[in-house]
Amino acid sequence: MTAPPAPPTAETLVSVIIPVYQGELFVLGAVRSALAQTHRALEVWVVDDGSTDGTLARLATIDDPRVHVLRQANAGTGAARNAGLARARGRYVAFLDCDDRWLPEKIETELAVLKHAAAPVAIAYSSHYAVDDRGRLLHASPVRRHAGNAFELLIDGEDFLMPSLCLFDRKVFDAVGTFHPNSYHEDHEFILRATRRFPIYSTCRRLAVYRQTIGGKCRGILNDYEAALGAELSLLSELGPLLSPGQARRLRDNVLRSLYFRFLMYGFDEHARRLAGSLDPAGFPSSVKGTLGWIFAKTGLNLIAPARLTVQRFHRLARQGWWQRRLADSGLELQYD
Are 255 and 287 contained in the same domain? Predict the structure, then answer.
């Protein structure tokens, strides 16, 4: 039998904000994974960003006083998150995308990290599992253990923080502001602003499930070279006033390298070849991916796309039994219907 939620207090209440647009296939699973958290003192703000499908009808089936549904005209994910923030009452804030999921102990574990952190105001974070549209395991991200200032790592290309992986002290938003609704990479832009001011601390565990889809925003834009390049470089103009000339140069190098590797991962070889002229292969990371990126720059042979597919096939074939047991043990549902 499920225990009733603990009476929330200013210290313990966590506000969970779930933005959703056309999410009828996903949103119930996201809300349920929030409500199933072992930390019971939650309020869940689901912000419908102008959906025209059955999202609201699905949400109407939830009977839990901790869940609040807001509606707004379509304005984008950043604006939806901000609408939830404006109503959130918790000392701590977490964001969950409608097609992502949390393991039950995520919030409890991250709260413990923040309460024992050296800094009075900070960000806790976890690592994640990535799944496909059918909930099959694609890969398990490396468990990151970094503690302290992460801003310099992030502008140099370490990409391990997403809003769904984090728990924020509310004072972070008081200090750095909210999401920029007109930013293409509103999540990454906010993470950079936040980590410039506040340290991060890891749970040293994978506690979230991130759904990778070929129909996502960041995948779809890769068809258009100029649009993709413009979206990446817009991050520089948005963060420019906060950066030193050296930091701006490093961030520019990072976003161009990141775009180059995404072009290769999804088979846009011509786009990658066009961008390669703006890159110094000597700056590629010291990793298998970096080596394969260097090989393409020198020979035109794309080994990154088949390597990515090989890793995903391995997980689909060899680790699904373990993955299903992991889901069963946690009581986590990954049905997208």
Answer: yes
Dihedral, CA of residue 239, residue 243, residue 249 and residue 254, to nearest 10: -50
DSSP 65: T
Q: Which of 190, 192, 179 is nearest to 85 (CA)?
A: 179
Residue 296, both tokens: 């393409």
- The CA–CA distances, whole Å, from 327 to 36, 54, 190 equal 13, 27, 31
Q: How far is CA 58 from CA 29, 53, 118, 123, in A?
A: 10, 10, 42, 32
Residue 11 banded pLDDT, cuts 50, 70, 90: low
Structure token digits, residue 245: 């000339």
Is residue 289 a contact partner of residue 265, using CB atoms and an 8 Å limit? no
Specify the residue for token string 């890793």: 311
Count of structural domains within the chain: 2
84-133 pLDDT tens trace: 999 999 999 999 999 999 999 999 999 999 999 999 999 999 999 999 88
pTM for this model (two decimals): 0.92
Residues 206 and 262 in one domain: no
Structure tokens belonging to residue 21: 């647009």
Q: Look at residues 117, 196, 210, 122 and name the one whose alpha carbon lies nearest to residue 165.
A: 210
Asked if 253 and 142 sit in the same domain, the reply is: no
Residue 3 is predicted with a pLDDT of 42
Conformation bin of residue 50: beta by default, left when phi > 0, alpha when psi is -120 to 50: left
What's the angle, vertex CA 113, arms to CA 198 and CA 167, rounded to 5? 60
- CA distance linking residue 165 with residue 217, whole number of Å: 19
Residue 93 lies in a domain: yes
Full domain range(s) for residue 203? 14-213
Considering the domain architecture, whether residues 169 and 238 belong to the same structural domain is answered as no
253 and 295 share one domain: yes
